[in-house]
Design brief:
The complex is a heterodimer of chains A (540) and B (483). Chain A has 540 residues and is an alpha/beta fold. Chain A is 35% helix and 19% strand. Among the domains of chain A are: 107 residues, Succinate dehydrogenase/fumarate reductase flavoprotein, catalytic domain (Flavocytochrome C3, Chain A, domain 1, Alpha-Beta Complex), CATH 3.90.700; 124 residues, Fumarate reductase/succinate dehydrogenase flavoprotein-like, C-terminal domain (Methane Monooxygenase Hydroxylase, Chain G, domain 1), CATH 1.20.58. By secondary structure, chain B is an alpha/beta fold. The longest helix of chain B has 18 residues. The chains are: A alpha/beta (540), B alpha/beta (483).
């Protein structure tokens, strides 16, 4: 056996988006902290792409209770109330951290952080930096982290969690050349973000491949509500390769109007009270219905129109949108955008307690990879807040955890090596497998779901999982591991969807009639861990 | 689907001695970007192709490459048939993946008070900082920066970050001094960085010149720059008299030969007035032969460019006011320059009540008589302040093609600008030498340009003659007159 590069630390953080970097900054106060990033820190993950904003109660007229209620209602009451309470109570403090660390948010005339309205909220509480809010946060966080002792390993992909004496004791990764690295830790924080790249049309970055759900599940952790996939209402529809590119909710927050090809503001039919600023699940279904009913545009979307807004407002508040559409030949100041729903966020994930501990000893989770905060539908602006609130908590809990002595099980590592070795003699091209997977997921596990379609997609996933993936060189091993993670994540999504016999939030079963509302639903979380799965029952 | 053929520069330092182009023919969807073409190569032709990407939407700066030599984000640039794709000019890890980390790690970070309260700066400051904040760290600017290639200049985005920190009241460090040690005065103000920036951050104007100004007021100006400033203040000119000046050799109004087609003011600039008056006289002669009445106000002085570029701005408003008055007193509505630096300064740093045009811009717009083709093979050096400063690249070539054949070379700074020639002669010489090598490669017999600083500097680094476009054009006219 070759000797592996072994890195020992107190806290290992996997992931370099908003949650991971925030966790590392916090954990650094308690001991040696290592952050492992699949990409260059600050570039990967979805935080840096997040456009619209960060929800926090900052004004006296607003209240944390209001934020709490909006979040629960938006989440179709599937949220874990304890987690929601933490989110809304601590979001303002974490915003203050960012400001202390130099973040440049937009401000009003009194130098207070400016806030705009977002969907499903009774108060304009979404803080923003133009439409590059997440980028601003990542810039601030990476600057802050550079000022700590956190050691970073960049472009190293974690492929499995290490287990030793009943605890998670670190992780195994592959560097850019496909060489194995071992990271051994007392505590491990998983902050790997989401995974909607398992869908054909998705907003996610290259790292949105669901690695964390798969790593956690394989190590024995429990995931909840994996069927709850947020389809963002407004993604680009053309050209082909740009399909799904996020068109921020801030466009509607700033006053953008949704119209079908007849010029009708069709939201009057679906949510006349909240209109364009209804919750994302509702707006997505409305758009999808308009398109299915033949009132879509030439490219298969609906219009999102800001041409009635002053050009200066578009230029200062939506500069990234303006720039991106101009690149594709559309000047949004004078012509409408065409948009359609796109897979955006996984509300479900690793089950956590408010201190971010998971169901496995030694493993903590924060950010999109965790479940329970957003219930069955996430409010726009709550994800960035979640990264900071739970990133800090995960870093703190992991940092305060006891020192356990850093060890690993050589047999586990050898087993992983053998698995990797088999990829060299595999026969299936990982890119082709991914293509089949994402088409099948879009087809069978999309906005509208039925039992036969879900079962069909499940059988496709099972077939794809039976194939032996091929790595041409050691550098290509990570592609095989990533596709394997996507297959695991997709199967968790589909299995969870089959476990939930109701329509709830983003999960819509067209073939099930129900006589309960989201408030009176008899069902709680779906849950899956190795050898145990089901759906919680709620006594009302 | 459509078919594309593209060339990609491949290099695996473990196995290859040198980079080499590979050609790939692939199928992509209509509207595909370069990134999607790279995906197609990776998925369908060669999975060993290494390239970097993350967001795919122009927000993370992972995927910058050079397409046909120009830095772009692969995810935003449309893939076209026949393009070449190369890595940025940064040390290559493999194929298109370059080592970005040293440049990212070089960025200074904010140092707030440990006991700071969470208070945002005011709206005006936030609005000033925001454009400097939108950097996505793609390092396209680093790839094209000439100063960084030959000196220990920290680089454009480091300067951008220093300016952002200087502006922020939450930061506690002396960023001006830090910037000086990072080579603040080594930038040649060539403008290449912001012209390739996908976020169009105006680093030279909005960061470097502003930082130089702040550094100047803290006493950091280079002695040579201070001497120039003193000379301007004393004489109104940035260089000394050594021979009769252009203004002494001309009268206020130079009438054209034949009917007056157009009447313009002429801004001569210090170099053409005092160092190269003969060239300026050639330009006047060309204008006169093309029906242009040239009015040359006697009261015009230095445009202020040497002061603005080096941050010594105290006296600039005086210069501006005197120059504007000199031209408006004669009711001039169009002012022509033949110095790229003066032209760019008048266009961007002044608010003039008259229109400012480059010599080549005026001639191509109003029309010019055909010269004889001299049968020369020349190369054209794009002056930074004309090509990138004023966006004028085609007009000089239109004129040039009438009189000579052009062999092109890459458009790169010669090293004379931004006060670098006086402040850091070694750096300027190193860039001049690079220019000399490029000129040599073209096999041209002569170098043509439109800037006295370039003309002067390049002449020291090539054995070929260097001429202003006006001189060559005049020679074409004279040749035509020969019996």
């Amino acid at each position: 056996m070759r000797s592996d590069e072994v890195v020992d630390c107190h806290v290992l953080v996997i992931g370099s988006g908003g949650a991971g970097v925030r966790a590392a900054i916090e954990a650094d106060q308690y001991g040696d902290t290592v952050l492992v990033s699949k990409t260059i820190v600050g570039k990967g993950g979805c935080t840096t792409m997040a456009e619209g904003g960060y929800n926090a109660v900052l004004k006296e007229l607003d209240s944390c209770e209001g934020h709490y209620e909006d979040t629960l209602r938006g989440g179709a009451y599937l949220n874990d109330p304890g987690l929601v309470r933490v989110l809304v109570d601590e979001a303002p403090d974490r915003m203050a951290d960012l400001i202390r660390w130099g973040a440049v948010f937009d401000v009003d005339d009194c130098a207070c952080v400016a806030q705009r309205p977002f969907g499903g909220q009774r108060f304009p509480r979404t803080c923003y930096a133009g439409d590059r809010t997440g980028h601003e946060m990542m810039t601030t966080l990476t600057e802050r982290m550079a000022d700590t002792e956190v050691e970073t390993y960049q472009e190293v992909s974690i492929i499995s969690l290490l287990e030793y004496e009943g605890r998670v004791s670190g992780a195994m990764g592959l560097d850019r050349n496909g060489e194995v690295m071992l990271f051994r830790s007392d505590s491990t924080v998983i902050a790997t973000g989401g995974g909607t790249r398992v869908y054909d049309i998705s907003t996610n970055s290259s790292s949105g491949t669901g690695d964390g759900y798969a790593l956690g599940y394989r190590a024995g952790a429990e995931v909840i509500d994996m069927e709850q996939i947020q389809f963002h209402p407004t993604g680009a529809v053309y050209p082909y390769d740009a399909r799904g590119r996020l068109v921020t909710e801030a466009v509607r927050g700033e006053g953008g109007l949704l119209k079908n090809k007849l010029g009708e503001r069709f939201m009057t039919r679906y949510d006349p009270e909240r209109m364009e600023l209804s919750t994302r699940d509702v707006v997505s279904r409305s758009i999808a219905t308009e398109i299915l009913d033949g009132r879509g545009t030439e490219h298969g979307g609906v219009y999102l129109d800001v041409t009635h807004l002053p050009a200066s407002q578009i230029e200062s508040r939506l500069p990234v949108m303006l720039e991106q559409f101009l690149k594709f030949g559309v000047d949004i100041r004078v012509e409408p955008m065409e948009v359609a729903p796109t897979a955006h966020h996984i509300m479900g994930g690793l089950r956590i307690r408010p201190d971010c501990s998971t169901t496995l000893k030694g493993l903590f989770a924060c950010g999109e990879v965790s479940g329970g905060v957003h219930g069955a539908n996430r409010l726009g602006g709550n994800a960035l807040a979640e990264t900071q609130v739970f990133g800090k908590r995960a870093g703190e809990t992991a940092g305060k955890a006891a020192v356990h002595g850093r060890s690993h099980d050589p047999a586990q590592v050898e087993g992983e090596r053998n698995r990797l070795g088999k990829y060299f003699t595999g026969t299936s091209d990982p890119a082709a497998v991914w293509r089949q997977l994402k088409l099948s997921m879009w087809e069978g596990a999309g906005i509208f779901r039925t039992l036969p379609a879900l079962q069909q997609t499940r059988s496709v996933i099972q077939h794809l999982q039976s194939l032996q993936l091929r790595a041409m060189t050691a550098e290509n091993l990570v592609e095989c591991c990533t596709v394997r993670n996507m297959l695991t994540t997709a199967s968790l999504i589909v299995d969870s969807a089959l476990l939930r016999p109701e329509s709830r939030g983003a999960h819509v079963r067209k073939d099930i009639a129900q006589d309960w509302t989201m408030e009176t639903s008899p069902f709680g979380h779906t849950f899956i861990s190795r050898g145990c799965r089901g759906i919680g029952k709620v006594s009302r | 689907m459509k078919q594309l053929t593209l060339r990609v520069l491949r290099f695996d330092p473990k196995n290859d001695d040198a980079p080499h182009f590979e050609s790939y023919t692939i199928q992509v969807h209509e509207g595909a970007r370069v990134l999607h073409a790279l995906h197609a190569i990776h998925d369908d032709c060669d999975p060993t192709l290494t390239y970097r990407y993350c967001c795919g939407t122009g927000q993370c700066g992972s995927c910058a490459v050079r397409v046909n030599g120009e830095p772009v984000l692969a995810c935003m640039e449309e893939a076209r048939d026949g393009i070449s794709v190369e890595p940025l000019e940064i040390p290559v890890i493999k194929d298109l993946a370059v080592d970005l980390l040293p440049y990212i790690e070089a960025l200074p970070v904010i140092c707030p008070e440990t006991t700071a309260t969470a208070q945002m700066p005011g709206k005006d400051l936030v609005e000033t900082m925001k454009p400097l904040r939108s950097c996505i760290g793609c390092m396209a600017c680093v790839s094209v920066c000439p100063a960084l290639a030959v000196s220990d200049f920290g680089g454009p985005t480091v300067m951008r970050q220093e300016m952002r920190l200087t502006l922020d009241p939450r930061d506690t460090k002396d960023r001006e001094s830090e910037a000086v040690t990072e080579g603040l005065f080594r930038c040649t103000s060539c403008q290449a960085c912001w012209k390739v920036c996908p976020k169009e951050i105006q680093i030279p104007g909005k960061a470097i010149e502003k930082l130089r100004e702040l550094a100047h007021y803290k006493g950091h100006s280079l002695p040579r720059h201070a001497e120039v400033a003193a000379l301007i203040k004393e004489t109104g000119r940035s260089v000394t008299w050594t021979a009769p000046s252009f203004l002494e050799l001309t009268t206020e109004v130079m009438e054209p030969y034949g009917p007056v087609k157009k009447s313009v003011g002429f801004f001569v600039g210090c170099m053409y007035n005092l160092r190269l008056p003969k060239t300026a006289l050639d330009a006047i002669e060309v204008l006169r032969r093309n029906g242009v009445r040239v009015i040359i106000p006697r009261d015009q002085i230095c445009c202020g460019s040497p002061l603005i570029r080096t941050g010594q701005t105290e006296y600039v408003d005086t210069l501006k006011a005197r120059n504007i008055a000199a031209f408006t007193a004669l009711s001039i509505d169009t002012v022509v320059t033949m110095c790229a630096g003066c032209g760019s300064t008048l266009k961007h740093d002044y608010e003039t009540p008259f229109k400012v045009m480059d010599f080549s811009e005026l001639l191509t717009e109003t029309g010019f008589g055909s010269p004889a083709h001299l049968g020369l093979n020349v190369t054209y050096h794009d002056p930074c302040h004309l090509a990138r400063g004023q966006g004028i690249t085609e007009q000089p070539r239109v004129i040039l093609r009438k009189v000579a054949d052009i062999t092109e070379m890459p458009s790169i700074c010669c090293g004379s600008g931004g006060g670098v020639r006086s402040g850091f002669p070694d750096e300027a010489a190193a860039l001049g030498e690079r220019r000399g090598e490029e000129i040599k490669k073209t096999g041209a017999e002569m170098v043509v340009t439109c800037c006295p600083f370039c003309e002067f500097h390049i002449a020291g680094h090539t054995d070929k003659p260097v001429q202003h476009l006006a001189t060559l054009l005049l020679n074409g006219y004279k040749e035509k007159e020969k019996p």
